[in-house]
Amino acid sequence: MYCPTGLLIEKWMLYYYPVLESATYIPQINGEANLAFGNQFKKIISAYINSGGFSVFYNDLKNKGIPNNLKSDFIALAKKLSDTITKMPMKYIGRSVSNHYYTIFEFEPGKRIKTSQNIDAEFLIDNFGSFSIPIDYHESFKFLGSFISGQDSILFKWAEFSVNASGKNLSVEKVINEVLKSPITLRDVEESKKIYKAILKKEGKVFCVWTGKEITNYDVDHMIPFSIWRNNDLWNLLPSQPATNNKKRDKIPSVEMIEKRKDLILHFWGLLNENQSQRFQKEIKLALLGNSPVGDWQNIAIKQLQSRCDYLISNRGYQGWEI
């Protein structure tokens, strides 16, 4: 199965935005050399400084689209990031065990970029090709992703590298605190919940997604908890009985639980698709569907959701939940 390279480009954008925006110089490579895409990225950051910064950029990327006056700069940045990813890490990873390039990542370039469409995260998925990796490497990468605490943390190791590259003028704590910034604000969360409640009010009857019972009082629950995955997409928001939501808290729905409540989850996804189709389709494509065929999106999205939850429980050690 091929994954859109645009998803990697988006992740690099969200990773490097706070690094390059920070008033503290946080080196990413040894020496004084600049990042290959630094100049292109700084143009975007400068344009957003007085209009809300990181969170507004993220909202434009996910929902509204990049403003017309920044389209050319954004496309130049995306192209530079694509070249950096595919001609550096993708090309050379695996050379220690093979004399060939692209021994782990198989890259399929995209076709001619269509600049006439809305420039957003979906644009990245549609225009920058795809890649695949062997299943055994994929499983290994999933396992490595479980090292999220202590001295083996990938984030901790990266912070240590930045400290050493700075000549030890920084501390690990300083680096991590500067960069671990979420583009999603509390206001964004509340606005998404407000949209959902308006749709449910229009529908009339509301059912708790986890118990199946009709309810008059409900919370809008992040199916995959916000504290674990800072995802505020509409597909990740579901109505839940307050007492049930309180029991769930930061637990991850099990694969079996999702299967039991599949019909209700799809019911709410259908309501969202009818009432907020543009935003809903963008968000679910970026998070769960990728380049999958749109004809059977419901079943594909449910399977991807189950896969994400199973990974968080089995590999990352979060507590599973079911009634």
Q: How would you portray this structure in words?
A:
The relative contact order is 0.11. This protein has helices at residues 5-21, 38-48, 53-64, 71-87, 89-92, 121-127, 135-144, 154-165, 172-179, 186-203, 242-248, 255-260, 262-275, 277-289, 297-314; strands at residues 3-4, 106-108, 130-132, 219-222, 237-240, 252-253, 320-321. It has two domains: 3-179, no CATH class; 186-321, no CATH class. The chain is mostly helical and 323 residues long. It is 54% helix and 6% strand. The two termini are 33 Å apart. It has a three-stranded antiparallel β-sheet with strand order 1-3-2. The protein has a two-stranded antiparallel ribbon with strand order 4-5.
Rg value: 21 Å
Query: What count of structural domains?
Result: 2
How much of the polypeptide forms β-strand, as a percent range?
A: 5-15%
Principal-axis shape equals globular
Distance between the amino and carboxyl termini: 33 Å
Order of helices and strands: EHHHHHEHEHHHHEEHEHHHHE
* Overall pLDDT metric: 86
How many beta-strand segments? Answer: 7
Low-confidence segments, ≥5 residues, pLDDT <50? 147-152
**What assembly state would you assign to the polypeptide chains in this entry?**
single chain
Helix content: 40-55%
Secondary-structure-based class equals mainly alpha
Give the spatial strand order of the biggest sheet. Answer: 1-3-2
Main beta-sheet strand count, sense and barrel state: 3 strands, antiparallel
Q: List the total number of helices.
A: 15
